[in-house]
């Protein structure tokens, strides 16, 4: 059946109606793929859906669709250039090479500390780029940019001289895209937004930071207020976190922030999503940030951040992450106590030979050799007769239902009842 499909496509592409066929989605041994077919070429190839979802997420974060009109004057122009582009710091050029080699189109340039991936030839846009973003939708406001961009590219499909009417339509589409670069959004796409693990990985590769607030690990996404629909969908997908609004500074658009900093949310909700078949699915240098950040999460989870040796290692790891890892930011390390990762790993091995300040019992953290829970700002739920009530602390719960904090803690650890109450951590 698959052989017949390829033969049928090749026959179509050897006729004068070549340009009527774009691409076909198919399923090979349970793996979703997109079949790419190019005019006058027998070299058809498939792209995995997982890669496409990652690329769409990465484009939502870092990509752009542009129309450049040369000699625009009096509702006409001489030339139009269509460009799909991703621009990154030059240290991340390998991920652009990975994209280019997988898509089998485009080119890369370097300039002033930046690496840029471009696709601007008509066939690649018509038969590779546009089918990809029709196969898996963009989830951000860039969806609207793409729709206008794709319409403009279609007007040039036959590669003939553009009529005055088509030129007017392209000018209109370019104006729409320029307007959308500000605050204006044509309409809601909430019903089109589909968050998947691989899309999220691509978006995180472009937008997220794995960092800390003092010695507390945190994960943060920040964007323009017009991405509010998207951020709410991401929060729903993660099943945790809050989307916060920040008022705008002068001449700046208001922003939204999605931040996770509760250790249970990080370990239980976020971190598992960054793996597939045992491998980290991030592809930019955020992959390295993530692996180093996991060391910080582990130090924090076990309480080593509360002692001097742990604080020293914590601070040393941070100097290998985010802005400090960029080759263009070497000046930031001046006067810093920078040590190699080999030294850091040796120090961590020695540190882990000592008892951790916290000990873990039934997935709860306690100060070692005590029955005192480590505060997580976790809420307590008291359940009785199929009715539940949530409290901000054990003390608040104990006071309200007149049960000792000691018994509530014992119930949390053992899972037993007390006076017909069951207690769980939220």
* Low-pLDDT residue spans: 1-24
**CATH class wording of the largest domain:** Alpha Beta
Largest sheet: 4 strands, antiparallel
Q: Work out the number of β strands.
A: 18
> Which band does the percent of strand residues land in?
15-25%
Q: Output the number of helix runs.
A: 14
Put the structure in a nutshell.
This is LAGLIDADG intron encoded protein. This protein is an alpha+beta fold.
Please describe what this structure looks like.
This protein has 14 helices and 18 strands. The chain folds into three domains: 2-190, Homing endonucleases (Endonuclease I-creI, Roll); 208-351, Endonuclease I-creI (Roll), CATH 3.10.28; 378-425, Winged helix-like DNA-binding domain superfamily/Winged helix DNA-binding domain (Arc Repressor Mutant, subunit A, Orthogonal Bundle), CATH 1.10.10. By secondary structure, it is α+β, with helices and mostly antiparallel strands. It has helices at residues 2-13, 49-62, 93-103, 122-135, 142-154, 164-180, 197-207, 228-238, 263-270, 286-301, 308-318, 341-351, 394-401, 405-414, and strands spanning 23-28, 31-36, 45-48, 63-70, 79-89, 107-111, 114-119, 209-213, 216-224, 242-246, 255-260, 275-276, 279-280, 358-361, 364-367, 380-384, 387-391, 422-425.
